[in-house]
Design goal:
By secondary structure, the chain is an all-alpha fold. The protein has one domain (about 1-145): Up-down Bundle (Four Helix Bundle (Hemerythrin (Met), subunit A)). It has six helices and no strands. The model has no long low-confidence stretch (mean pLDDT about 80).
Length: about 160
């Protein structure tokens, strides 16, 4: 995921400040994800988890990243794609619902782990974090495709 991020930053970095900020926030999210995941798998006998403050920080940046996408960036990208023409707009409209699918999973993860943990919840942490990581990886691919769509050479009709 970090390699894909570096490629995205190299390809689109500097082209639009909103995208630059969003990719920087993605980087922060990934760093925190890897820090939290680095503590797993944990010894299931003692239910050791990453530090709860670390989990809370990860959940907060996760929510910030999701919010930035849904409330700031996607609409702007779709509007820009609309200006490029119907082919670009059609792809953007097809990608957006697929991106949004990961939102519910991420919100569920936040609801489950951002507050105090108990043993029954902590037993699922490693699996839930892995599932979230897979969803985020797909989301980042789709977001990159949306950004690429904006900068691809589509002709207007």
């Amino acid at each position: 995921m970090l390699t894909r991020l570096e490629e995205a930053q190299a390809q689109w970095g500097g082209s639009h400040s909103v995208i630059d900020n969003w990719l920087a926030e993605r980087q922060e999210l990934l760093v925190l994800y890897y820090q939290v995941a680095g503590c797993a798998p944990y010894d299931k006998n003692d239910h050791a988890l990453p530090d709860h403050a670390q989990i809370q920080s990860f959940c907060q940046i996760l929510l910030d990243y999701l919010s930035a996408g849904h409330f700031e960036i996607y609409d702007d990208l779709v509007q820009q794609c609309e200006k490029k023409g119907p082919e670009s707009l059609k792809l953007a409209q097809a990608l957006y619902p697929r991106i949004a699918e990961s939102t519910d999973l991420a919100l569920d993860f936040n609801d489950k782990y951002a507050e105090a943990l108990n043993e029954s919840v902590s037993a699922d942490f490693d699996r839930d974090l892995s599932t979230l990581g897979e969803a985020l990886e797909l989301r980042f691919e789709l977001e990159d495709e949306l950004i690429h769509n904006l900068y691809a050479n589509h002709t207007t009709v």
